[in-house]
Write a structure and sequence with these properties.
Homodimer. Belongs to the peptidase M20 family. The protein is α+β, with helices and mostly antiparallel strands. The chain has two domains: 295 residues, Zn peptidases (Aminopeptidase, 3-Layer(aba) Sandwich); 120 residues, 2-Layer Sandwich (Alpha-Beta Plaits). Helix content is 38%, strand content 24%. α1 runs antiparallel to α3.
Length: 419
Amino acid sequence: MADSAMRLAGLVFAALREASEDPPGVTRASYGPGERAAHAILRAAAEEAGLEVDCDAVGTLCMTLPGADRDLPALVIGSHLDAVPHGGNYDGAAGVVMGLALAAELRTQGRMLPRDLVVLGIRAEEMCWFPMLYLGSRAAFGLLPPDAPDTLRRTDSGRTLAAHMEEEGFDPDVIRQGRASLDPRLIHAFLEPHIEQGPALVQAGLPAAIVTGIRGSLRYRSCRATGAWGHAGAVPRAGRRDAVLAVAALATALEEFWRATEAAGRDLVLTMGECWTDPALHGPTKIPGEVRFSLDIRSEDPAVLEEAGALLRDQAARIEAGRGVTIDYGAPLPVPPATMDARLRAALQRGAEAAGVPVLQMASGAGHDALTFAGLCVPTAMLFIRNTGGSHNPEEAMDLADFRAAFAVLAAAVGEIAA
């Protein structure tokens, strides 16, 4: 990585941290002050680097390095600039900064790609602020429900998306009317560099990874097991309808399914993220009659997700028949998996070899804006950067040496990809 590009990246990361610091981490609320500051920092850096800069009606920041033929579909690199409360500085932002550093370096070298290179700073990716997946990228493509500006409320303020957009100077009417600023037909390919949000690269001792696909998911936010409350000392085992033991049996069955799926070499991760009884009703001398819980099941393989859904139905029937406890999973939130484009992955692999950077091939367990682009049949790829300390927390820690290595992969591959 050229020293000038590295200096630019370091300065932007430092400015982002200073502008959105919220001890013990950073906070960049979607359509809020932290996100606004981040976009202003990237805009200023892009203008200083001599790029064309524009912003659409929903706040998507577009930073463009002109190519030789401006009528060709553009190569797009980008990610989001919002961040969870008290989160890390690099989630999302690393991808935007890497795209900006690449565009600035190409311009410094006087190197012109055959087509425009557009770097996107996308709004509102983090679902913790508004209950809508990939809100910003879907808004830019005109994919949100027309009532979204008026029905979605930000979790911290209780105010509508429309109110927050207007406060930031944007126009919610474009969502109400389904108007788009991005056209998938005008995008040659989409690349999203991003920190890895798990431990795979740390465990492998490698600085970067090429993502094979983004796991799809089955999410059940409001599951309920309903049995019968009773006296802990007076009801024998055979007469109990214990909701806790029923959920424990379900969890055991799901883990056995997970073990068998992994043993067969298939992709799966599974989480019961919440599990609780009502504190107004439970007690140490009461048999629990109701348990609420959530389920999050993810896989790159649609068949695995189908099998998991079938297992859930089968276990509900078994538990009701054997324990007298009903299981209601509620409405699922299904998200299909997205396989990353094979040609882009191969180009990134050749870039890694040319740059002398060893890389891992791995699935992404987290969702990303790349899913929106891939879902519109835009050729899409992701490049992961090693990150210690996990993500969505203030311990997130990306070493700039790893950022340099991932940048070298992207820089070595960009010519082939743009062509």
